[in-house]
Design a protein that fits this description.
Blueprint lengths: L1 H24 L2 H21 L7 H21 L3 H19 L7 H26 L7 H50 L3
């Protein structure tokens, strides 16, 4: 399964690397479409930190650069889950801003609907990549099973301690009985 995963990640990451590199070199081609989102996000960014870029051109370039970086990470198999999550998070506003087929006239509507659905498919692949543990148990599974193992371990330790205590009580009683019999026998015997 590992070669299939590696090939799938490379194919999935390639579109983000190529399109991101094109946009980094020529951000103006996407600025008009991005304004639908950046005009709403820009003021929020300025409230968070006035030093953050809020103009559409810079945000388009930053998003494209993150696509290149995350796409390369995904394609090379490094930090695949966080890279896929970053790509998925960036794909949602890109899809909404770039392919609003619902507001377009018919000749353009079909083309944008196809691109919207393509991006939806990419989003599905990215979500799968973001949760893929590569056949290894995930953190939730490992945590719950570690807790179960520790509870069983504590339970076994308590059981062993109880058995040990019962054994010690029986041994003490037996020794006390033997000591009492020896003391009684010692009184009966004349010296």
């Amino acid at each position: 399964m590992k070669p299939v995963r590696a090939a799938a990640r490379a194919m999935l990451g390639a579109i983000f690397v190529v399109s991101g590199a094109r946009i980094v070199l020529n951000p103006d081609s996407k600025v008009a479409a991005a304004k639908r989102v950046t005009d709403k996000v820009g003021p929020m960014l300025e409230k968070v930190d006035p030093r953050l870029p809020s103009d559409a051109r810079t945000l388009v370039r930053v998003k494209a650069a993150s696509d290149v970086a995350a796409g390369l990470l995904l394609a090379t198999g490094r930090l695949t889950r966080p890279a896929a999550a970053v790509l998925a998070a960036g794909l949602v506003p890109t899809t909404v801003a770039g392919h609003p087929f619902w507001s377009m006239p018919e000749p353009e509507r079909t083309q944008h609907e196809t691109h919207f659905l393509k991006n939806l498919g990419l989003l599905g692949g990215l979500l799968l990549a973001a949760v893929d543990t590569q056949g290894k148990p995930g953190l939730g599974y490992r945590t719950s099973h570690a807790l179960d193992r520790s509870q069983r371990s504590v339970s076994r330790a308590v059981d062993r301690s109880q058995r040990s205590a019962r054994r010690a009580v029986r041994t003490a009683r037996r020794e006390a009985k033997i000591a009492a019999m020896s003391a009684a026998a010692g009184r009966k015997l004349p010296h």
